[in-house]
Design goal:
The complex is a heterodimer. Helices cover about 70% and strands about 5% of the residues of chain A. By secondary structure, chain A is mostly helical. Among the domains of chain A are: about 220 residues, no CATH class; about 45 residues, no CATH class; about 50 residues. A two-stranded antiparallel sheet of chain A has the order 1-2. In chain A, helix 1 runs antiparallel to helix 2, helix 3 runs parallel beside helix 15 and helix 13 runs parallel beside helix 18. The termini of chain A are far apart. Chain B is mostly helical. The C terminus of chain B is likely disordered. Chain B has a domain of about 220 residues. Chain B has a two-stranded antiparallel ribbon with strand order 1-2. Chain B is built from 21 helices and two strands. In chain B, strand 1 and strand 2 form a beta hairpin. The chains are: A mainly alpha, B mainly alpha. Chain A: This is NADH-quinone oxidoreductase subunit L. Chain A: It is a multi-pass membrane protein.
């Protein structure tokens, strides 16, 4: 069984290397790429079946020693427990579906081999991330994910815009990563080990002690780790790379948003939950950041007109929900939402890819419309995806979001709960808007292409998962629930609190129907000039994702560029060049005395002698 | 005589290569590569056939009489640290040869002669255990390098060669003064006149003056490294030097500075190095940030890589003066990893320059569509230089940071932000040269400059491919399985670290409480 575990991340890695060095023909490329990842998925499912009935299991396999110096000892050891098993299953299964879809989507691209190599490497890095047993191996996967996302976002490298988006993604996440590396190093000195499980164990022991020693430094570590998580999972203030990351091919967006990359941050915090329990302030901070992000994402998504950007902002906002859940101490709710989100977001992105393909690369939703007749399948898949996103009752997203809101209340955070509810309102509004505008209304532009069979199969599977993925077997998530997960007894939800999140989406979707299809509430004639401009300003503000880009350009990028540009010739070198000028000046001055004329020399000799004698006499 | 032979081999090889040009135009390069391969085989056989005695630090230790009156001897010794650095020297020498193969056509005999003599000087530096002998080799490696730059360099080569020579010469002078002062002080203290490292290291001088002698050594070495205020010779020199010389310069010559710090400054002046350590860590932090910021604003690819070297070598300086076992291991690893990654980058820049006749980032772009293999290599080594985990540079930087965070968290914090800047300049380099629209500029430029013959630009040939692949593999090896290298240098570094361990214990506790 341990061999199976070792093979799961190594298979995609091996296939990536094979594709890079061998560069086979199209068909073989597809077989190798999709085959390797499907095999990994199969292995993950086998492990699932075998470990299903065991309450608490741990599987470890060592792939070799990395380094060992003094106290620092690292190995390539994979560690599988219920949490990582769930992650592995999501990553490989959704990854395999996306690979299958891409095989059809990218088949006309001349660089298909490079594409699949990156894609495989991406999944492999993500698997190393979730299976790592020490923080440095986790960091290896973490940066590997960053690298692959960089390569894939900038995959169509001829467009300057794409590589700029790739650079932005890499640098912003790198800022978080660097903070996280500092956190890891500090943790090493706190716990004398980098093994994740030992850190959790020691944290539990510390938690049981009456008074916590050195809490501040541990809080600092947690905060730094969270900075890394915020970078990868696009939380405020490091979220602005994600909307631009849409520059890559659409399956890549699906992979980044659903199965890999952005879920890494959630996993990191969930994995280190025991450690974070030592720092309740940081957890509270995480919850607040989560709420701010989810409102930011949801309101910004409302203002977008680009199909992929709407989905990108919706990812940001859904990630905010997961961090809210983590912040109130419920790792299981966060991971549950992560799973359902993986299903419906993959469905939405892949449907969007098919739609954009059918619409001749048109991404503006206002140029689409009335497509439900010509694309019934896509209308259906979008419908399910949007319903799950809006968390309409009985979809998968409903169960998980419900759980998060419930956990927030149980943790006595009514303010955060209201934040979550407001976010849910906006979420339902923009998902309904997206669906209605694209598929209802009048037909703007006819679509021509049909969706290839492979894509249809993938979409079908994902539709099914988005619908029933929320019906979880009870035992699945109890395995790794932290002690704080169990709700404080005696506290129950009031009727209002119970029904509001259930009814809100239904109400909102109805509202959206009247707003966007029937055209109610939209003023037909523009009112006074001032209010219009205010509205436009608000729209602009939301469209740019709360203007973070402009802020960063003002605070960081411009000064940095100014300083570096000003100092391009190296001010230090200037000093040395002055020395050079000075000495050559001196040389030219002194050179004048050497005229080659005897009378000058004899005159100077006489003058010197006179002066010397005079000096001697005075002395 | 083994170590003596190791130095003699390239020396004699250089003379033969110089002479052999009369026989055949291509003879020098074959002789040079043969000579390097022979030295390599010899080095490895020394390692294999000397019994690994754990109690004895030195693999080989041999002394020949030289100037008995002043008790100066030709004392050579090799430990793990010298071994890995000599290995790096010979391997990078081969890389340099590979890039010189088609590039150098004028006076090829003299070129390969100088090339081998520089390497001989560097090997001597890594082996000499007598301070005056060390000084001699320190100068020996410079003079041939001066010729390499001044004769085969680019348009502004005389200026660059002179700058290089003056900077290192000034450093060398300081070192000579310090050596003499050290020997005299040691004589006053113990009545033994000796320049021998192993004698001097037994009885560290305790005098107020030791601080200043130590500073003399430090400056000589950090000019070579180069660290912040003394770095400005490096970009000019690299820009003008021919590619093989750039490779040797970046890959090995700079490492003599780091080696000097580890071998001489720290063990000979434990107290004084502790005194200077905050200042040096500060300089290292500034180097890291300043080098990265300078690298960001450059448009000349060679200058960009040169400034990135300043930034990376800052980690070596930081590692040396963190006076901590992790950081020392990291510093050695950084020397090796940076040697390989930068040599590869310079080789790639050389290839680009050879193919497109420009190094200007604004005139390049879109290389991926015309030269996918070269660009993929560029991407790989760019990633290595920004510290991607899984490659040697990451391990090095991680260990340096771990060590520094223990001793001086503030300096470590500054250094860590260098990692972000490294990403910024590396990505800019990659984007500007490899991504974007394939510039039809080659046609335009040729029209402008009047070249009408449009030469077909080819991707990497087999030799270049193999060289670069081997460098990739060695970086991956250092990143994934660094333990053999750690074990090799373990003994030497424990020796150094133990000097500081006792005196540093209370301060460690202090910092931990502060945190």
């Amino acid at each position: 069984m341990t061999i199976l575990l070792g093979l799961i991340p190594l298979l995609p890695l091996f296939s990536a290397c094979l594709l890079i060095f061998w560069q086979p023909k199209l068909l073989l490329t597809q077989i190798i790429a999709v085959g390797s990842i499907s095999l990994s998925a199969l292995l993950a499912l086998i492990l699932n079946v075998q470990l299903w009935d065991q309450a608490q299991f741990v599987l470890q396999v060592s792939l070799g020693q990395w380094l060992s110096i003094d106290n620092l000892s690292l190995g390539f050891t994979l560690y599988l427990d219920p949490l990582s098993l769930i992650m592995v299953t999501i990553i490989t299964c959704v990854g395999a579906l996306i690979h299958l879809y891409s095989a059809s989507y990218m088949k006309d691209d001349p660089d298909v081999c490079r594409f699949f190599a990156y894609l495989n490497l991406f999944v492999s890095a993500m698997l190393f991330l979730v299976l790592a047993d020490n923080l440095i191996l986790l960091y290896l996967g973490w940066e590997g994910v960053g690298l692959c996302s960089y390569l894939l976002i900038g995959f169509w490298y001829r467009e300057q815009k794409n590589s700029q988006a790739a650079n932005k993604a890499f640098i912003i996440t790198r800022i978080g990563d660097t903070a996280m590396l500092i956190g890891i190093i500090l943790l090493f000195y706190q716990f004398d080990t980098l093994n994740i499980q030992q850190i959790q164990l020691q944290s539990q022991q510390l938690l049981q002690m009456d008074e916590l020693p050195t809490t501040e430094i541990i809080s600092l570590c947690c905060l730094l780790l969270f900075a890394g998580a915020a970078g990868k999972s696009a939380q405020v203030p490091l979220q602005s790379w994600l909307p631009d990351a849409m520059a890559g091919p659409t399956p890549v967006s699906a992979l980044i948003h659903a199965a890999t990359m952005v879920t890494a941050g959630i996993y990191l915090v969930a994995r280190n939950m025991d450690l974070f329990q030592l720092a309740p302030d940081v957890l509270h901070f995480i919850a607040i950041i989560g709420v701010v992000t989810l409102i930011l994402g949801a309101t910004s998504a409302l203002a977008q007109s680009d199909l992929k950007r709407i989905l990108a902002y919706s990812t940001i906002s859904q990630l905010g929900y997961m961090f809210l859940a983590l912040g109130v101490g419920s790792a299981s709710a966060a991971v549950f939402h992560l799973m359902t989100h993986a299903f419906f977001k993959a469905l939405l992105f892949l449907s969007a890819g098919a739609l954009i393909y059918c619409m001749h690369h048109e991404q503006n939703i206002f140029k689409m419309g009335g497509l439900r007749k010509s694309q019934p399948l896509l209308a259906f898949s979008f419908g399910i995806g949007c319903a799950a996103l809006a968390s309409l009752p009985m979809t998968s997203g409903f169960f998980s979001k419900e759980l998060i809101l419930e956990q927030t209340l149980l943790a006595h955070q009514p303010l955060l709960w209201w934040g979550g509810v407001i976010g849910a309102f906006f979420t339902a509004l923009y998902s309904a808007k997206l669906f209605f505008i694209v598929f209802f209304g009048k037909l703007n532009q006819p679509s021509t292409h049909n969706t290839p069979t492979a894509m249809v199969i993938v979409l079908m599977i994902l539709m099914l998962l988005s619908l029933v993925g929320g019906v979880q077997p009870q035992g699945l998530f109890t395995h790794f629930s932290a002690p704080a997960d169990s709700a404080s007894p005696g506290h129950t939800l009031s009727l209002f609190q119970h029904w509001l999140p259930i009814l809100l989406p239904i109400f909102t979707v109805t509202l959206a129907w009247f707003m966007f299809i029937k055209g109610y509430f939209t003023p037909t004639t523009p009112s006074e000039g001032s209010s219009v401009s205010l509205k436009q300003k608000l729209h602009q503000f939301l469209l740019s994702g709360w203007d973070f880009d402009r802020l960063y350009r003002l605070i960081f990028i411009k000064p940095f560029k100014l300083v570096t540009e000003y100092n391009r010739r190296d001010i230090i070198d200037l000093a040395y060049r002055q020395l050079e000028t000075f000495s050559s000046l001196l040389y030219r001055q002194l050179n004048r005395f050497q005229t080659g004329q005897l009378r000058h020399y004899s005159a100077s000799l006489v003058i010197f002698c006179v002066l010397a004698i005079a000096w001697g006499l005075i002395q | 005589m083994m170590l003596f032979t190791l130095i003699l081999l390239p020396l004699v090889g250089g003379v033969i290569a110089c002479w052999s040009q009369r026989v055949h135009q291509d003879a020098p390069k074959w002789i040079a590569s043969l000579c390097l391969l022979l030295s390599l085989a010899f080095l490895i056989s020394i390692k294999l056939f000397t019994s690994m005695d754990p109690s004895n630090l030195w693999l080989v230790d041999e002394t020949l009489a030289w100037i008995p009156r002043l008790n100066i001897s030709a004392h050579f010794a090799m430990d793990g640290l010298s071994f890995v650095l000599i290995l790096l020297t010979l391997l990078m020498g081969l890389v340099g040869l590979s890039s010189a193969w088609n590039e150098i056509s004028q006076h090829s005999g003299f070129f390969y002669g100088n090339f081998l003599w520089t390497l001989a000087g560097i090997i001597g530096v890594f082996l000499a255990m007598d301070l005056l002998l060390f000084f001699v080799f320190w100068e020996v490696m410079l003079v041939p390098m001066y010729f390499l730059i001044a004769i085969w360099g680019n348009e502004n080569r005389r200026y660059a060669a002179l700058k290089f020579f003056l900077f290192t010469q000034a450093g060398g002078l300081l070192m000579l003064l310090s050596i003499v002062a050290l020997a005299v002080l040691h004589y006053q203290q113990t009545q033994i006149l000796s320049f021998d490292y192993q004698v001097l290291v037994q009885s560290p001088i305790d005098s107020e003056f030791a601080k200043w002698i130590c500073l003399g050594f430090i400056i000589a070495f950090i000019v070579k490294l180069p660290a912040f205020p003394f770095h400005s010779w490096l970009p000019d020199t690299h820009t003008q030097a021919p590619t093989p010389a750039s490779i040797i310069l970046a890959a090995v010559l700079l490492k003599t500075g780091g080696y000097g710090l580890l071998r001489f400054v720290l063990p000979l002046f434990p107290d004084a190095s502790q005194f200077w350590s905050p200042l040096m860590m500060g300089l290292a932090g500034i180097s890291i940030i300043y080098g990265a910021m300078m690298a960001f604003s450059q448009t000349d690819l060679k200058r960009l890589v040169a400034y990135s070297s300043v930034s990376h070598m800052g980690f070596v300086l930081l590692g040396c003066f963190s006076l901590n076992f992790y950081a020392l291991q990291g510093a050695v690893m950084q020397m090796l990893a940076h040697g390989v990654s930068t040599a590869a980058l310079f080789m790639l820049v050389g290839l680009i320059q050879h193919k497109f006749h420009t190094r200007d980032l604004n005139q390049l772009g879109g290389l991926w569509s015309t030269l996918p293999k070269l660009s993929a290599m560029g991407l790989f080594f760019g990633m290595a230089s920004l510290g991607m985990p899984g490659l040697g540079n990451f391990i090095a930087e991680l260990l340096v940071l771990i060590g520094t965070f223990k001793q001086a968290p503030m300096f470590a914090l500054v250094a860590t932000s260098g990692l972000i800047l490294a990403a910024v300049y590396s990505l800019r380099m990659i984007q500007k040269s490899f991504f974007g629209v394939s510039v039809n500029a080659d046609e335009n430029r040729e029209n402008k400059t009047g070249h009408t013959s449009k030469q077909i630009i080819t991707d990497l040939n087999a030799k270049e491919k193999i060289t670069l692949m081997l460098m990739c593999l060695s970086l991956i090896f250092m990143g994934l399985h660094p333990q053999p290298i750690f074990n090799l240098v373990n003994g030497s570094l424990i020796e150094i670290a133990s000097l500081f361990q006792a005196s540093f214990q209370p301060e460690i506790l202090l910092i931990e409480v502060q945190l």
